[in-house]
Design brief:
Residues 1-22 and 356-363 have low confidence and may be disordered. Helices cover 7% and strands 41% of the residues. A five-stranded antiparallel β-sheet has the order 1-2-25-24-23, with no helix packed on it. The protein has a four-stranded antiparallel β-sheet with strand order 3-4-5-6, with no helix packed on it. A four-stranded antiparallel β-sheet has the order 7-8-9-10, with no helix packed on it. The chain has two helices and 25 strands. The chain has helices spanning 2-19, 56-62, and strands at 27-29, 38-44, 74-80, 83-88, 93-98, 103-106, 118-123, 129-133, 138-142, 148-152, 161-167, 170-175, 180-185, 191-195, 208-213, 219-223, 228-232, 238-242, 255-260, 266-270, 275-279, 286-291, 303-309, 324-334, 341-349. It is mainly beta. Strand 1 (27-29) and strand 2 (38-44) form a beta hairpin.
Amino acid sequence: MKKHFFGFLAVLLLFGCATDRQKIQTVFYPMPPQNPKLQFLMSISTEEDLGKKKDVLMEFLVGQTIAQKQVARAVGITTAKGKIYVSDRTFKKILILDLDKKEFDYIKDEKEGQISSPGGIWVTEDGYKYIADLTRKQILVFDAQNNYVKAYGSEEQFAKPMDVVVYENKIYVCDFDKHQIIILDRDSGKVVQTIGEAGSEEGKLYKPSHIVIDKYGSIYVNDSFNFRVQKFDSLGKFEKTFGYQGDTLGGFARPKGISVDDEGYLYVVDTAFENVQIFDGETTRLVLFFGGFGPEPGSMYMPNSIHIDYQNIDYFKKYIDKDFKVKYLVFVGNMLGEHKINVYGFGDWTGAPLPGITPQKIN
């Protein structure tokens, strides 16, 4: 009996080792023979995708599959060195994907720090997490050790805070129902400025859902029900518009998460088109799109959030093509489907020239 048990256990262990790694198909955007600028690297949905091993012995002993820690509905993504933070609307938690330990955890929110309906999340350089809570109508703050610190705002101050960004000593809150960006002093919590009001004219907003600030302090807002992204300067003055309502490339049907790289390229998620479009920051012209619906690697299923990351490239090196030099990572969160967080690398092709077309440049 003991001999048969250990023989069966060995089969289980071998099976576990064979199935705990993703088989990744190399996918580039644009597709060869065009000069690629993005490579799909992998998807993360469970601890196993990070390399966590199944406890097949425990599964055998208890007679059932143990549920793995997983992402359910990613509505916000940000990163720090060695970690990915995911705002999960289903679990009502901020998940912590630890790239060193290859495991999932979450911020332990309790009592006055309890998270009710998380939206956007921002992590500062000193490790503080700022979380927009739609139900509490507040911005919750946790320190570098993930302890609750304080909450900004109230029902009188915010109606539906969807997203948050911290820049220098100010907190920028994207309020969906007030049609405004509400700016708070980080020390006092007092409102120091608002940007926008309900309307469709330049500088006005209607149901803004996401916000990002570039390294110069310029503010980008997803003006969702006006089907555009508006850019304001650091003082809140309108500068330009990206996109329009439409079903052609460069247009939007259901724009959601936005992000901007250090060179000014703007990334916009569209939940309806299930793709991401990249716009030139100077000309506002569309330069590339990627994703699309389907089961293929790199495809999306109701994407909502996006984040550009320069810190964690080394953790994904094994997935990067030897002839492709990655400058930064792009994380896209999907609300449905089996693959909840898609990871892409943006960079340059360094191999032999691809036949059939003159290489394109996105500097």
